[in-house]
Specification:
Layout: H1 15-47, H2 59-88, E1 95-102, E2 105-110, E3 117-120, E4 142-145, E5 150-156, E6 161-165, E7 170-174, E8 180-184, E9 190-195, E10 208-214, H3 216-229
Parallel strand pairs: 1-5, 4-10
Antiparallel strand pairs: 1-2, 2-3, 5-8, 6-7, 9-10
Helix pairs in contact: 1-2
Length: 230
């Protein structure tokens, strides 16, 4: 989850988020270099006492300021396209979960397990246990196994929602009548928080997303207990 006065992204918990962080740092360095160069040119032009009216017709400068930006954009586009391809790649997921957005809660259905489905509501402040976070904790978490490809099918029942977990690098719109999908792999055990990222009404800020990644044997025990309760 985000921390107070946090300036950067949350720590990555999936390979996709790690790639997104690397690309962010790469793009930020390019922006810093360009900004420094432009500032230098402005300072030189303002402070210099030399003028040359023929500089406006320089073919060399025309070529440089055409090809240099094109080269920079190419250096940014290639890793960006690679990450987009990785994010869209879904190859033999170990688990498929359907996340349905409602006003204002989420419901989850484990399609590989018969009758394993539940609703996930935000835990009221007065019911929070010590160590739980206000407006982020849910009464039922979406539990997934660690280091297993998980495909999430995202849709909505009423209005537009968006299923997003920053630490896992996933954000997918939940559109009524449409089934979108996103995949992720949790590289470490933990609890990862997200929130609906599409303004969906009065209680938009009160439908958190909680993904709990656990070892495979713990996930199997959890799923067995859930099926017994049902």
């Amino acid at each position: 989850m985000a921390s107070p006065a946090q300036m950067g992204f949350q720590n990555a918990a999936s390979p996709v988020m790690e790639e997104l962080l690397f690309f962010h740092d790469h793009a930020l360095m390019v922006v810093a270099l360009i900004s420094t160069f432009v500032l230098y040119i402005i300072v030189v032009m303002v402070t210099s006492k030399f003028t040359d009216k023929l500089i406006l017709d320089s073919q060399a400068i025309e070529i440089i300021w055409t090809f240099l930006p094109a080269t920079v954009l190419t250096l940014l586009a290639l890793p960006s396209l690679q990450i987009l391809y990785i994010m869209d790649e879904i190859n033999a997921p170990h688990l498929t979960i359907k996340a349905m957005g409602h006003q204002w809660y989420w419901s989850y259905e484990y399609t590989d397990y018969e009758n394993l489905a539940f609703d996930s509501y935000m835990t009221p402040t007065q019911d929070l246990a010590p160590g739980q976070f206000r407006l982020l904790e849910a009464d039922h978490r979406m539990v997934v196994p660690v280091e297993s490809p998980v495909r999430t099918l995202v849709s909505a029942e009423d209005v537009l929602h968006s299923w997003a977990v920053p630490s896992l690098g996933v954000k997918m719109d939940a559109v009524p009548g449409r089934l979108n999908q996103v995949t992720f792999i949790a590289t470490r055990a933990g609890v990862f928080y997200g929130q609906c990222s599409e303004i969906c009404g009065a209680n938009h800020s009160f439908m958190p997303i909680v993904v709990e990644a656990v070892p495979l044997e713990h996930f199997e025990n959890w799923s067995s207990l859930m099926l017994e309760d049902i």
